[in-house]
From TrEMBL:
This is AB hydrolase-1 domain-containing protein. The keyword Signal applies. Keywords: Signal. The keyword Secreted does not apply. It comes from Tolumonas auensis (strain DSM 9187 / NBRC 110442 / TA 4). Coiled coil: none annotated.
Length: 371
């Protein structure tokens, strides 16, 4: 009798294992994403930057003791103004990696996880088979070593950014907003913001990003907000940038000399737009570009400054698209509400629907044969 029961138990266990295996195959075939994140290679490095060399000869004996009054810099060096890069490569990665570049007051944390603790674009696109390179630009975050001094303020300004980043009009969230309304999510969002540790210098950022592509090889540049303008110049500078994805770039779009608007006007103030020779601008017509803007951007002038600046920037983006495409380019501009995607803030990669936002990009990459 014991033998019979053992056989019955064994048969039952085999049947259960087979059922689980079949269920797993069915789930994957139905399009359910696997939970396992596989990484074949990862690491970090600095790229770009400058070296300051002071005159004289360093004396290791005389200057070997650190003085609380400061260090005598005679004959010493200062390495700074570099970018820091953290990369992960999954098995059988697509041939073009994604390079993620943060915006103003942010760091690579923008892409790592969401303020409410869900997976960010880093993991989402690793699971889609893309190598990811996350960047802290010079004088920001992990790249804080600057060759130029700067005063770091301790200004209380977070409610201002709540409005500029279109979470709402403080203290109220927009009714349809995709940002988590959990107070801890807002706490984490504020704490991911980080200051410049030296004067902001777009040329340093462009040079460092170009060095990254020189080191890494061909790839796709993904920018956000403040990095949008330098992103266009990086693509012009380095032919290894094979496509640009830009989430809510600021108003500093590039236009060719003699075409497009000369200035951008915001609340009565006018700012010149960068112009480049047509030979340089043409480089932007040789790669596919997609630009995304979220929700709660008004169609007509608004007295809400957090909304008005994005209305103006979206208008400039439309003109940029038209000029690039008129010169033979391939720019897709997506205003998310126009395709039925509502409630996105200035941080669509962090919003509650960030997987849907990622799927839109994934489909665009597939359509443009950029995998």
């Amino acid at each position: 009798m014991q033998t019979i029961r053992t056989k019955q138990f064994s048969t039952l266990m085999i049947a259960m294992v087979m059922a689980i295996a079949v269920s797993g195959c069915t789930s994957q075939s139905a399009g359910v994403k696997p939970e396992t994140l596989s990484i074949e290679k990862q690491g970090s490095f600095a790229v770009g930057g400058t070296i300051v060399q002071t005159p004289g000869t360093f004396d290791p004996i005389k200057q070997g003791a650190y003085s609380p009054m400061g260090v005598d810099s005679t004959g010493q060096t200062l390495h700074g103004d570099h970018a820091t890069v953290f990369y992960q490569i999954p098995p059988k990665a697509h041939h073009l990696p994604l390079v993620f570049w943060h915006g103003h007051g942010e760091s690579m944390r923008t892409w790592q996880t969401t303020p409410d603790g869900r997976e960010g674009f880093q993991n989402i696109f690793l699971k889609k088979g893309y190598a990811t390179y996350l960047v802290d630009q010079p004088r920001r975050g992990l790249s804080g070593k600057s060759t130029q001094p700067a005063a770091i303020s301790a200004a209380a300004d977070e409610q201002l950014w709540f409005g500029i980043f279109r979470l709402g009009a403080w203290p109220d969230y927009y009714p349809n907003v995709q940002f988590s309304k959990d107070p801890e999510a807002l706490n984490q969002f504020y704490r991911q913001m980080t200051p410049n540790t030296g004067p902001y210098d777009a040329s340093l950022n462009i040079a460092a990003m170009s060095k990254l592509f020189d080191k890494m090889g061909d790839g796709i540049l993904v920018t956000h907000s403040q990095s949008g303008g330098p992103g266009w110049k990086t693509a012009i500078k380095d032919s290894r940038v094979k496509a640009v994805v830009s989430y809510e770039p600021g108003g500093d779009f590039i236009f060719p000399e003699g075409q497009g608007p000369d200035n951008i006007t915001l609340k009565g103030r006018s700012f010149p737009l960068p112009k480049v020779p047509m030979a340089e601008f043409k480089k932007l017509t040789e790669i596919p570009i997609v630009i995304y803007y979220g929700d709660n951007i008004p169609e007509s002038e608004s007295n809400n400054p957090g909304q008005e600046q994005w209305r103006v920037f979206l208008n400039i983006a439309e003109q940029f698209r038209d000029v690039v495409n008129a010169n033979g380019g391939d720019v897709t501009l997506v205003h998310l509400p126009d395709i039925g995607v509502y409630g996105n803030t200035h941080f669509p990669m962090s919003d509650l629907n960030n997987e849907k936002i990622a799927d839109l990009l994934s489909q665009w990459l597939k359509d443009k044969h950029l995998q």
